[in-house]
Amino acid sequence: MADDKLKVVANKVEGLATEAKGRAKDAVGGLTGDIGLQAEGKFDQFAGGARQDFADLYEEGEGFVEKATTFVRDKPLLSLGIVSGVALILSWLIFPRKKSS
Question: Where is the signal peptide (predicted)?
Answer without folding.
Answer: none
